[in-house]
Amino acid sequence: MMEMWTTMGSTIASFMFVWAIIRQYCPYEVRRYFEKYTHRIMGFFYPYIKISIHEFTGDRLKRSEAYAAVEAYLSVNSSKSAKRLKAEMGKDSSNLVLSMDEYERVTDEFHGAKVWWVSSKVVSPTKSMSYYSEQEKRYYRLTFHKRYREIITETYLEHVVREGKEIRVRNRQRKLYTNSPGYKWPSYKQTMWSHIVFEHPATFETMALEPEKKLEIIEDLVTFSKSKEFYARIGKAWKRGYLLYGPPGTGKSTMIAAMANLLNYDVYDLELTAVKDNTELRKLLIETTSKSIIVIEDIDCSLDLTGQRKKKAEKSSEDDKEKIDKEASRREQREESNSKVTLSGLLNFIDGLWSACGGERLIVFTTNYVEKLDPALIRRGRMDKHIELSYCSFKGFKVLAKNYLKVETHPMFDTIERLMNETKITPADVAENLMPKSPSDDVEKCLSSLIQALEEGKEEEAKKKADELKEEVVKENAD
Ligand SMILES: Nc1ncnc2c1ncn2[C@@H]1O[C@H](COP(=O)(O)OP(=O)(O)OP(=O)(O)O)[C@@H](O)[C@H]1O
Ligand SMILES: [Mg+2]
Questions:
Q1: How many CB atoms lie within 10 A of CB 183?
Q2: Which residue has its alpha carbon closest to ligand 1 atom 25?
Q3: Is the distance from the beta carbon of residue 248 to the nearest atom of ligand 1 less than 6 Å?
């Protein structure tokens, strides 16, 4: 090895010497001619091959997956040999993950072939004078002897990417991405999404839901996540759409968190009212990564799908006040932000998602009014599985009682079961009543509070029914 470096060093030194003489004494034409061939001659003597893997390719829209995989591979394989490392927070904020620092060089060996990895960057100023306008283009450079060309390009690189991807899945800190409303996308920012660490504690186990329904959903999700080959075989993109519908407080948002926790996916919370137009929607889509859930909450409020929403809302009863308020505020937001996303834009978004992006993705819509949605939006193939989340059943209550009070059975359960059959209550209301309000609140106190809420609900329902009956009688008499 030493000998080889000495020979190479003296060859380069001779070239430098000859080049210095030529630059000083030769005319321009000779210099150009020499320059042209120096490159080739150097290539002939220099026995090493270099491969660069850049963080952003071409349009800079999307971080290169190859770069991310190499980064992860080197974070494990270089941390023993590199001398300068950087540390970042790992999964669940519980440990630090080490990776190679900039300009650090490490060696790796694969079936007897020795390779060198260097992490580097070029800083290129852009036209604007702002501080942020400098663009850093980071890359990894792999160097190896040309005699290993075959094994490196055909086997080693594949091994690095495969192992890197596995490490990423194991180590990754899951994220909740949002596209904040009214946020201007500055040119220096490489992404339109902002993110925070996703640490929602909801699981299917803690959800108040019929056990059979729960099992069905879990099986559906797990089957989807393991069906890469199946989807490839039948020629279908590896995507699945879920429509969650039901009254407020029945666990739609909670279920999305439980889905993400079950599959270990990231969540992209897409706020449609903040999206300027269909083009921006498409850009947002391109930036989403695989193993993620793209969520559009309250789809009926985010988009003027039918043009009839206002009329229907006006007709609704007092009970629907909460829903109407939510809808009105969304509408205001939409008008303020002047979003021009259309139904066809959204349909293209979903179909585009289905075809344009590799890797598994779920898309989830939630709504309080399933009947208002355009059939085109929720047909199978776009929204493959429709899940209704409804008022709390007694079985659902038992799950919540176990979670909140750690009781599986209690003499007061019979009264609760009877009342739950007579009146409707959302899981959110049950949960609120089961929550101890002071340190002295015991199981009986919380269960009594729930019984009281159920009785009040029952009374209110009876009163409403009586009022309706009265109204009908008055109307009939007037006729
Ligand atoms: N099925 C459920 N199981 C367990 N907890 C639930 C369930 N449904 C609701 N909750 C509780 O109620 C709260 C509100 O629920 P969530 O936000 O999921 O309702 P939602 O259906 O998304 O309502 P909205 O239509 O208003 O968005 C949650 O924080 C959770 O604690
Ligand atoms: Mg919700």
A1: 13
A2: 248
A3: yes
Q: What is the ipTM of this complex?
A: 0.98
CA of 14 to the centre of ligand 2 (A): 73
Over the stretch 70-102, which tens digit does the pLDDT of each residue have? 988 888 877 667 777 777 766 555 667 677 777
Confirm or reject: Cβ of 207 under 6 Å from ligand 1: yes
* Ligand at shortest distance from the CA of 255: 1
Protein residue whose Cα sits closest to atom 11 of ligand 1: 428
Burial of 118 (0-12, 13-18, 19+ CB in 10 A): middle
Backbone angles phi, psi at 169, to 5 degrees: -65, -40
Q: Which ligand is nearest to the CA of 392?
A: 1
d(CA 181, CA 334): 10
Q: Which residues, other chains included, contact 94 with Cβ-Cβ below 8 Å and sequence gap of 6+?
A: none
Tell which one of 250, 322, 372, 404 to mutate to probe ligand 1, the residue whose CB is within 8 A of the most ligand atoms: 250
Sign of CA dihedral 324, 325, 326, 331: positive
pTM: predicted TM-score of the whole model, two decimal places:
0.69
* Cβ of 99 below 6 Å from ligand 1: no
Ligand 1 in reach of 433 Cβ (< 6 A): no
